[in-house]
Specification:
nine-stranded mixed beta sheet, binds P-hydroxybenzoic acid, 12 helices
Length: 389
């Protein structure tokens, strides 16, 4: 009888080990659906580089589970993103989706809701996005955050007559509207609003129109990925010597492209959540590790991926490895941590990012152009939203 009892206990113990083992083997899948090719391919590459760096630095063992990162290219097409999200959630049993550009993040929203899976929005900067699903949490930024801060700064620093020139899609319309509303309240005037098509933009005729309107300041939003093209055409047309101040959300002087821009961009003032020259020990280490791994400078898009992975890791730790979507989103609400961009948190009401917005000026340091931060606005919430569940 004693032998039998012993054997029983042994089986139980073995069983427990086997279950533990199965748990460790049982992967938690995170599917990133990003634009790695197409017009905004450079944006997706920055994002994925940031996400991969986080995984390399922190390992794949999280709360007793093995985290598996699956990266898919949607080519920047929302139709593709939607199909890939369905495949990842249904076939691969992914527990998290990392979403990219605004149209893609929007197209995934109903699928995330149906699957009750967290959709961590890592690129999109359009305010409305987080309202489209209670499972969306954003780690990127909003155009409203930077445009409102910049409008106040411009009104207080001598800008009176502004031409606004934005890329004609949702984040551009947000930039135009939020800047305009705030700038006019500050006593300024928008003398012309110009929208440039997103696909294959030729900025030259629009820049001519802007110049002909004789503003004192030109406010520009182009998405990261088009900043280099914009700067080239701006300088080729001699706008940097036309006596017009150039300002905009910091996408305009994205660190990813800034190193390749002409010195004519020196003096451009922008507002954004991240600069590669942000002075903190954590950021210095981030920039060094990122450059070592990728051979290029991290831009603001990359921190959306790095912090997106931090959010996923931390939520899993809080749920002890459970992948219940409601528990994970509850764990993410109110989470606060230190990022290479500075202190950040997730607004528990809106599930949106709360972060510092910095005003920066393009300067040359050691032979390279950088965005030097000279004013900080702390813990900025997205001004574009109302509270939601
Ligand atoms: C967006 O998808 O909303 C987006 C992409 C790139 C940017 C800004 C916004 O630079």
């Amino acid at each position: 009888m004693i032998r039998g009892l012993c054997a029983g206990i042994c089986l139980l113990v073995l069983g427990a080990f086997a279950a533990d083992d199965a748990m460790a083997q049982d992967s938690v899948k995170v599917g990133l659906i990003m634009p790695l090719t197409g017009q905004l391919g450079a944006v997706g590459k920055q994002l994925v580089a940031g996400a991969r760096l986080y995984v390399e630095q922190h390992g794949t063992a999280v709360a007793g589970r093995n985290l598996e990162l699956i990266v898919k290219d949607d080519g920047g097409s929302a139709e593709n993103s939607k199909r890939i999200a369905q495949e990842l959630l249904v076939n691969d049993k992914a527990s998290f989706i990392g979403a990219g550009l605004t149209p893609s993040a929007l197209s995934i929203a109903p699928i995330a809701t149906q699957a009750k899976a967290p959709e961590v929005v890592m690129i999109s900067g359009t305010s409305i996005v987080t309202e489209r699903s209670p499972y969306i949490v954003r780690t990127s930024f909003t155009l409203a955050q930077s445009s409102v801060i910049l409008a106040d700064w411009a009104a207080k620093n001598g800008s009176r007559k502004v031409v606004s020139l934005v890329s004609d899609w949702a984040p551009g319309i947000d930039a135009e509207n939020f800047f305009k509303d705030r700038f006019v309240r500050g006593g300024g005037e928008i003398i012309e609003s110009i929208r440039v098509p997103l696909a294959n933009p030729d900025f030259a005729p629009f820049l001519q129109r802007a110049r002909d309107a004789r503003p004192d300041t030109l406010f520009v939003f182009v998405p990261a990925g088009q900043a280099g093209t914009f700067a080239k055409q701006y300088i080729e047309r001699g706008l940097h010597t036309a006596g017009i101040k150039l300002i905009g959300p910091g996408d305009l002087t994205d660190d990813d492209a800034l190193g390749g821009m002409d010195d004519g961009m020196i003096g451009t003032v922008t507002a954004l959540n991240y600069s590669a020259s942000h002075p903190s020990a954590m950021n210095e280490a981030y920039v060094a590790a990122f450059k070592r791994a990728n051979g290029f400078r991290p831009g603001f898009i990359s921190v959306g991926g790095y912090d997106g992975m931090h959010l996923i890791y931390s939520a899993l730790k809080k749920t002890n490895g459970s992948t219940d979507g409601d528990a994970l989103v509850a764990a993410m609400k109110g989470m606060a941590w230190e990022s290479p961009r500075g202190p950040i948190s997730i607004d528990p009401e809106t599930r949106d990012i709360v972060q510092n917005i910095y005003i920066r000026r393009v300067e040359k340091k050691n032979g390279e152009l950088y965005n030097t931060e000279f004013a900080t606005f702390e813990a900025v919430k997205d001004p574009g939203q109302t509270a939601k569940p």
